[in-house]
From TrEMBL:
Protein name, per record: histidine kinase
Enzyme class: transferase
GO CC annotations, alphabetized: plasma membrane
Keyword Nucleotide-binding: no
Domain spans labelled Histidine kinase: 134-352
Catalytic activity: ATP + protein L-histidine = ADP + protein N-phospho-L-histidine
Sorted UniProt keywords: Kinase, Membrane, Phosphoprotein, Transferase, Transmembrane, Transmembrane helix, Two-component regulatory system
Membrane-spanning intervals of the chain: 27-46, 58-76
PANTHER family: SENSOR-TYPE HISTIDINE KINASE PRRB (PTHR43711:SF32), TWO-COMPONENT HISTIDINE KINASE (PTHR43711)
E.C. code: 2.7.13.3
Subcellular location(s) per record: Cell membrane
Domain HAMP: from-to ranges: 74-126
Length: 360
């Protein structure tokens, strides 16, 4: 049976809802009882006045008042039937059905809540499908490239030169990056990250973290500037998570930088916060993309000012991980307008003392 078929009663009786304005089911039921009693009484009175005996008048009165009750009750309960049909459709993966929520009583409120719930389930189902599709795609691309590369090497079509081996290595690096991202993502899902905070010097930390990334510039001849003020600025936070933040943001800056560009990391103290800015001289991030890019698997869209995407080999998870790591510290991260290129602005508490803080 097609569960999306409307219930059978629908065909036999019209869906009348004259009592939709009533705010409570009790009021509706009282109205139905009073009106059907009035109908029965009027018919009995009319019948008796016109010389019809009780054997004819009573059945007539019952038929009319019962028909009225059935008609109104049907309108009152039709959202419940619609919900049943929608739930059956959802069980088959169809989240498009909504309930007509016109009444103001408890059933109407239930219908509204039901529609909101279906909306929510539909959107998380869509995200789940997207994640599976994206992950499969991201895993397939380097595996296919590696497979072709190794096949050519085995068949002797290409020589195992440093260049061919380097290409194969790049694909495996991409695979391992994706896998470690996925592990991070599952930790995000579990919300189970503990912060291991300690106090350390921001300047040394940034020099070290950015220095380790300079080799990723891929011959772009980039300049790397780390500007910390005051020079002895310290922070109490989790260095491992902070390294994730810096690594992802500097990797993005490198990826989007033009040849000969400058990647700048600025650290400042403001009250009880440390402000970090990651700047590059690339195409920048379009205003309409500035919130979306922090979602998982979001990459620059067709309107993106980024010239490198979506062919640059990114997985679209980096910024989601940055936001997660920043949230764990109770900080914030945003993409802001910059005179040139992109500017990612991170605010972290200078003294994070909460160990084992869970993201909200
Ligand atoms: N510095 C930047 N300049 C321009 N666009 C950027 C910059 N940083 C991020 N973006 C845009 O935001 C998108 C999401 O970035 P994110 O770091 O989440 O993913 P990615 O860099 O594509 O992949 P990866 O998962 O490898 O980091 C990018 O695809 C890009 O369009
Ligand atoms: Mg990235």
């Amino acid at each position: 049976m097609d569960s999306r078929q409307p219930p059978r009663l629908k065909a036999s009786l019209p869906d009348v809802r004259p009592l939709d304005r009533a705010r409570s089911l009790k009021v509706k039921l009282s109205v139905v009882v009073v009106v059907s009693v009035l109908i029965a009484a009027s018919i009995t009175w009319l019948g008796l006045r016109n010389g019809l005996g009780p054997t004819k008048t009573f059945p007539l009165a019952i038929i009319f008042s019962l028909s009225f009750t059935l008609l109104i009750a049907r309108g009152m309960t039709s959202p419940l039937r619609e919900m049943t049909a929608a739930v059956s459709a959802m069980a088959e993966g169809d989240y498009s059905q909504r309930v007509r929520a016109t009444s103001h009583d408890e059933v109407g409120q239930l219908a509204l809540a039901f529609n909101a719930m279906v909306e929510e389930i539909a959107s998380s189902d869509q995200i789940r499908r997207d994640v599976i599709a994206n992950v499969s795609h991201e895993l397939r691309t380097p595996v296919a490239a590696l497979h072709a590369q190794l096949e050519n090497l085995v068949d002797g079509v290409v020589e195992p030169t440093p260049a061919t081996l380097h290409t194969a290595l790049t694909q495996t690096e991409r695979l391992s990056r994706l896998i470690s991202y996925l592990l991070d993502l599952s930790r995000i899902e579990a919300g189970a990250a503990e912060l291991r905070v300690k106090e350390f010097a921001v300047g040394d930390f940034l020099e070290d973290a950015v220095g380790a990334l300079t080799m990723l510039e891929a011959g772009k001849q980039l300049d790397f500037v780390v500007d910390v003020d005051p020079g002895d600025l310290t922070i109490t936070s989790d260095p491992e998570r902070l390294r994730q933040i810096v690594t992802n943001l500097v990797q993005n800056a490198i990826r989007h930088s033009p040849y000969g560009g400058t990647v700048t990391v600025v650290a400042r103290e403001e009250g009880d916060e440390v402000l970090l800015d990651f700047l590059d001289e690339g195409p920048g991030i379009a205003v309409e993309d500035r919130e979306r890019i922090f979602q998982r698997f979001a990459r620059g869209g067709p309107n993106s000012r980024s010239v490198n995407h979506p062919t640059s080999g990114g997985t679209g998870i980096g910024l989601a991980i940055v936001r997660w790591a920043v949230d764990l510290h109770g900080g914030s991260v945003r993409a802001l307008e910059a005179p040139k290129g992109a500017r990612i602005h991170v605010r972290l508490p200078k003294n994070h003392t909460l160990v084992g803080h869970q993201p909200s």
